[in-house]
Amino acid sequence: MDVLHAIDSDAWAGPFASDEQGDAVGALEQGSILYFPHLNFTLRSGEERLLMPRVLDHGGKNVSLEPDGTLSHATLSGGTKDCLRGMMVRFSDAAAALVETLFPTYRGRVDLGPTSFRPVEIEGRKARPLADDTRLHVDAFPSVPMNGRRILRVFANVNPDGKARLWNVGEPFADMARNILPRAKPPIPGAAWFYAAVGATVGRRTPYDELMLGLHHGAKLDLAYQAKCPKTPIDFPPGAVWMCYTDQVVHATLKGQHALEQTFYVPVGAMADPSRSPLRVLERMTGRRLV
Ligand code: SIN
Ligand code: FE
Q1: Ligand 1: does its nearest atom lie under 6 Å from the Cβ of 257?
Q2: By C-alpha distance, which of 140, 147, 288 is closest to 213?
Q3: Which of 54, 90, 235, 287 has a Cα at 20 to 30 A from 65?
Q4: Average pLDDT estimate for 244-264
Q5: What is the DSSP letter of 39?
């Protein structure tokens, strides 16, 4: 499996040839990162003033825009806030057009998740170990149970100073799961019910969600694993766009400032090959149904 699968397009809404679409979905589902060196999310005049860490409030990791229009962790007001919202909505629309045209077999089955703007330099940023994305991990959301659904994310580097975003990509998902699962902390009995009852999670965590959180936490807290896991460093230069299933691709972000990101949720049943989903991999590994 290649870490990157490059696609030469410079148009967010394609068109893409059918063999290009088939290759793309195959590579994505195998755990490659689809890399678009020429796609370039272009900022509009006035938006460059948004490229500063102060746009983000102290409590937040990223500025976040929910599909219902709720904007959180932005410090701005008035016209500047509208400008930020406008940039994020435009990115969200572009990312949705890309997913829609590149993956015709997913069409109508993908749910839109939040859009984020990431204006803070990653290198040297202070974070609690579990929130530290410079450590290798797969994505799992403590408050949003996935119930088996996939996390598909589209990223764009919009850095104005020529600075690349540097990722490390780790080992294939199944290898990571084999390494981490035996040592991951088991969930506390009754916890999933309790978190849902007090509203700490949006619905109840399934055994799948518990295992995925176990992998996320287990990998981030295991410094020996972090040190010895094979890694491929990848520079995403300004103008680059990339996407992957972040619940499957073991990743860490080491450096970089000013990125946009759009999350999508994809049901396992929409995949060209559902057997490659973390859900099915973990079910084979544990010998039980997880959702
Ligand atoms: C992450 O999901 O770990 C962060 C990705 C990024 O901001 O580049
Ligand atoms: Fe992540």
Answers
A1: no
A2: 140
A3: 235
A4: 98
A5: -
More confident residue, 268 or 60: 268
Structure tokens at 4: 């990157």
Cα atoms in the Cβ-side hemisphere of radius 13 Å centred on 9: 20
Report the phi/psi class of residue 275: left, alpha or beta, with left for phi > 0 and alpha for psi in -120 to 50: alpha
132-165: pLDDT as tens digits: 999 999 999 989 999 989 999 999 999 999 999 9
Per-residue pLDDT averaged across 116-141, rounded?
Answer: 96
pLDDT of residue 124: 94
Q: Which residue has the least CA distance to atom 1 on ligand 1?
A: 133
As a whole number of angstroms, the distance between CA 133 and CA 269 comes to: 29
The reply to whether ligand 1 has any atom less than 6 angstroms from the CB of 276 is no
CA atoms within 13 A on the CB side of 183: 14
Distance 139 CA to ligand 2 centre (A): 5
Q: Is pLDDT at 184 greater than 80 in this prediction?
A: no
Take residue 133 and report the two structure tokens written for it. Answer: 């994305």
Secondary structure E strands in 23-100 = 33-36, 63-65, 71-72
Is the pLDDT score of 186 beyond 80? no
Cα–ligand 1 centroid distance for 18 (angstroms): 30
Instruction: Assess contact for 193 and 201: CB atoms under 8 A.
Output: no
Q: In what order do the strands lie in the sheet with 150-157?
A: 4-6, 33-36, 241-245, 150-157, 259-266, 111-118, 63-65, 71-72
Is residue 259 in contact with ligand 1, taking CB distance under 6 Å? Answer: yes
At residue 104, what are phi and psi to the nearest 5 degrees? Answer: -60, -30
**218 band by pLDDT with thresholds 50, 70 and 90:** very high
> What are the structural domains, with CATH classification, of the chain?
4-286 (2.60.120)
What's the pTM value of the predicted model, to 2 decimals?
Answer: 0.97
